[in-house]
Amino acid sequence: MQPSYDWTPVFRLMIVGLLLAAGPLMWVWLRSRGASPVQRLRVLAGLTLFLTFDLVLFGAFTRLTDSGLGCPDWPGCYGAASPIGAHADIAAAQAAMPTGPVTFSKAWIEMIHRYLATAVGALILVMAVVSTIERRRNPATPLLWPWLSLVWVCLQGAFGALTVTMKLFPAIVTLHLLGGLALLALLRLQAVRYGQADALTWQAARLHPGLRAALWVLFIAVWLQVALGGWVSTNYAVLACRDFPTCQGSWWPPMDFARGFELWRELGAQGSGEALPFAALTAIHYVHRLFAYVVLAALVGVGLALRRAGMAGHGRWLLALAGWQLLTGLSNVVLEWPLVAAVSHTGGAAVLVALLAGWLAATASVPVSGVLTPGSSVATPVWRERRA
Q1: How many Å apart are CA 365 and CA 206, to the nearest integer?
Q2: What is the rounded (10 degree) CA torsion for 65, 70, 75, 77?
Q3: Cα–chain center distance at 350
Q4: HSE (CB half, 13 Å, CA atoms) of 359?
Q5: Residue 5 pLDDT level (bands cut at 50, 70, 90)
Q6: What Rg, from alpha-carbon coordinates, does the chain have?
Q7: pLDDT of residue 207
Q8: Are 191 and 131 in contact (CB under 8 A)?
Q9: For 175-215, how does the pLDDT look when each residue is reduced to its tens digit (9 = 90+)?
Q10: Going by C-beta distance under 8 Å and a sequence separation of 6 or more, which residues neighbour residue 156?
Q11: Which residues contact 154 (CB under 8 A, 6 or more apart)?
Q12: Is residue 266 among the annotated active site residues?
């Protein structure tokens, strides 16, 4: 009697991920031999954050090169752990449709993305386990965030599987993108908490309540804009408007908002199964563009406010990222969606999410001493850690 499911590709993929994760783990161990366990965890969290950022970019590259179905099953490739073992199946699919979704190059791109994701998951698992062990010796070691990151990366894996099995369903692919950025935010917050666990007290900037509220509003606006951008990309609506600042030569082109923002439907189709009209793609694109004006204004406004409040470095980051997103977003339209501009646009959004999450986490503690003087926007009191 044959088993109902062959787990061999799963185990092989896990082995590849563990082998890839061994390199970063060895690097952290060699680099931080004299450091405390919490300090090592902080370094590992920073490295995992960087690798997750790379994974988000490679995920965008996978989507933009139409490689998401390069291996039409999951987690392996035609039941094999790599395209090498699936050579015959890929060759047959490519011969039948040379420019179709399955080719050798697309299969390798898709599998490399899966290998990187498995390696990131292994690193997050190590941090969760080590944090649990270290918590017994150092009660300040964060425990909630490492385990939340582990749960989240497992959910990301599930969405990755659904992305393939549901044939690039736009809502699933968009949620997968948002989940990747949420993982970035969790890892950034985790790195901050490890830094705070290094000592019972530390120096941190205390923002004026109004300015901190503005950061929260900006953070929420960035997430909404990322969701709109993901919806544009996963519906292939970038080129619905090929001119700027107008769209199709008009300030208000024909748009079908109801069909454009019908969330549960297949790629290129309405919920009824009929083809998605071009006016729906135009609505998807133009809403993202209109809200981009709001987010850019907010980035500039909060950036200038941070500079006036004595946080010039933070302000410069926001102003630079506003310029970067404007440049790459315009390039996608006027240069007709070049790959480097599209990946760079995703990268800018990822950096924004990680930076804002870190800043908000670093100012989320309860003050022990130090108060804002009249007329000042920022103070640098000593803060007691809020343990998680």
Answers
A1: 9
A2: -150
A3: 5
A4: 24
A5: low
A6: 23
A7: 78
A8: no
A9: 999 999 999 999 999 999 998 887 644 455 577 888 999 99
A10: 117, 176, 179, 180, 183
A11: 121
A12: no
pTM listed for this prediction? 0.90
* pLDDT tens digit sequence for 133-154: 999 988 889 999 999 999 999 9
> Which residue carries 């009660």 as its tokens?
139
Pull the structure tokens for residue 44.
Answer: 């590992």
Q: Tell me what the pLDDT averaged over the chain comes to.
A: 89
Q: Distance (Å, rounded) from C-alpha 103 to C-alpha 118? A: 23
222 residue type, one letter: V
331 pLDDT exceeds 50? yes
- Residue 316 phi/psi, 5-degree rounding, is -65, -35
Q: Is 201 helix (H, G, I), strand (E, B) or coil?
A: strand
Polymer length in residues for the chain: 388
Please tell me which residue in 110, 134, 274, 385 is annotated as part of the active site. Answer: 110
